[in-house]
Design brief:
Number of helices: 13
Number of strands: 15
Oligomer: single chain
Strand order of the largest sheet: 6-7-8-9-10-11-12
Order of helices and strands: EEEEEEHEHEHEHHEHEHEHHHHHEEEH
Helix content: 10-25%
Strand content: 25-35%
Bound molecules: zinc ion
CATH architecture of one domain: Alpha-Beta Barrel
Distance between the termini: 18 Å
CATH class of one domain: Alpha Beta
Length: 379
């Protein structure tokens, strides 16, 4: 007897194909047409999609952070997202407290450790090199091996002060002790210059805010993608959207995508303020922007499932396959005429919108507010 069967879910990559999916003991137990019974069943009737659980690879959800805070379940299951990756809200000082808070959440939470031990206690956490405490970072990584899935360094002038590229060298020194951990680097106002940052990134590292509209963007002044970016991509560096309140430009994304530079991961950089007041609102609205920019549904879904799972080494997540975690997002794709904004004052008509209905985490169902109004979930 299965614990849960989801019947007649729409497939992402094939029109008019529906499938059943059975869950047992928090894992995906069977996929295809399923005649067996389960203790609980949901029939999606071919109306709604089921994908691997959405992973937002860049959020801020350490509720005790004085500047960029939110609650994991508000940026997670409330929006159909099953896993969130906090991108450096905490350094070694607070990561233990954050881990403790995260345990009490329904959303799966993982963290990128800020290389500064004070994390986002201030806006300029890398201005004092004494805060980049290699031994403290090393101890934290050793103590929380399941929680910490990577490192985070914010490399913009307002964060590093007069330290230029030095914090990045120190990040690399931490990473050398833990070579499996990807390093996510935030790019913002120069210095340091994007070319100098990018050339220090190695295979597996992540460049976030990849379509920011600031002068330190991935395009040169003639609008072509910088050579340093192409070289980084060839080396295996990945690009993360990290939309946020100031780091996403439709124009930059459009030009880069036209030159074949697509995002590897689509993420929100959400926290309470840009969740409530916009322009982020949630992962789903950010995903819809990329449909409008010409990516296919399957490509967009890959950027919030298989890709982040692979890049962040979240084993057993990111795919609908037998034996994988029963983390599943159920959603509709509706036709709308919603106008969405980037961070540069440009508006874009989004003809399609994702409407998340449920997040299933390790087999446990959490309905979104929208999901509660759909009778298929009368459980
Ligand atoms: Zn961020």
């Amino acid at each position: 007897m299965f614990d849960l069967i989801i019947r007649r879910a729409r497939a992402i990559d094939a029109e008019d194909v529906v499938f059943d999916l059975a869950i047992k003991d928090g894992l995906i137990a069977k996929i295809g047409q399923i005649n067996a019974k389960a203790r609980q069943e949901i029939d999606l009737n071919g109306r709604f999609y089921a994908s691997a659980g959405w992973i937002d690879s860049h959020v801020h959800c350490y509720s005790a952070s004085p500047i960029y805070n939110d609650e994991p379940d508000l940026v997670g299951i409330a929006g159909g997202v099953t896993t969130v990756i906090d991108a450096g809200s905490c350094g070694a000082n607070d990561i233990g407290h954050f881990n403790q808070l995260a345990q009490a959440c329904q959303t799966e939470v993982r963290a990128l450790l800020n290389i500064s031990r004070i994390g986002l206690a201030t806006q300029h956490e890398l201005a004092d090199l004494a805060d980049i405490d290699l031994a403290a970072a090393d101890r934290a990584i050793t103590q929380y091996p399941d929680f910490i899935v990577g490192l985070k360094a914010r490399l913009s002038s307002s964060v590093v002060g007069g330290n230029g590229i030095t914090p990045l060298k120190m990040a690399k020194a931490i990473q050398q002790q833990h070579p499996k951990l990807p390093l996510m680097v935030h790019v913002g106002n120069t210095p340091p210059d994007l070319d100098d940052i990018t050339q220090m990134l190695d295979q597996g590292d992540i460049l976030t805010h990849c379509y920011n509209g600031k002068p330190n963007r991935i395009l040169n002044c003639s609008g072509t993608v910088r050579t340093s970016i192409y070289r980084a991509i060839e080396r295996g560096v990945t690009l993360d959207v990290g939309h946020g309140g100031a780091s996403f430009s439709f124009a930059v994304a459009r030009q880069a995508i036209a030159q074949g530079v697509l995002p590897n991961t689509i993420s929100s950089d959400i926290y309470c303020r840009n969740r409530i007041a916009g322009p982020v609102f949630g992962l789903a609205p950010v995903m819809a922007k990329f449909l409008s920019l010409g990516m296919t549904l399957a490509e967009v879904i890959q950027c919030v499932t298989a890709h982040p799972a692979q890049i962040l080494h979240l084993t057993a997540k990111g795919r609908l396959e037998v034996g994988f975690a029963a983390d599943i997002s159920i959603f509709a794709v509706d036709s709308t005429d919603l106008v969405q904004s980037d961070c540069e004052g440009e508006s874009l008509l989004c003809a399609q919108q994702f409407r998340p209905l449920a997040a299933i985490v390790a087999g446990k169902i959490f309905l979104t507010d929208e999901g509660k109004t759909e009778h298929v979930f009368n459980l």
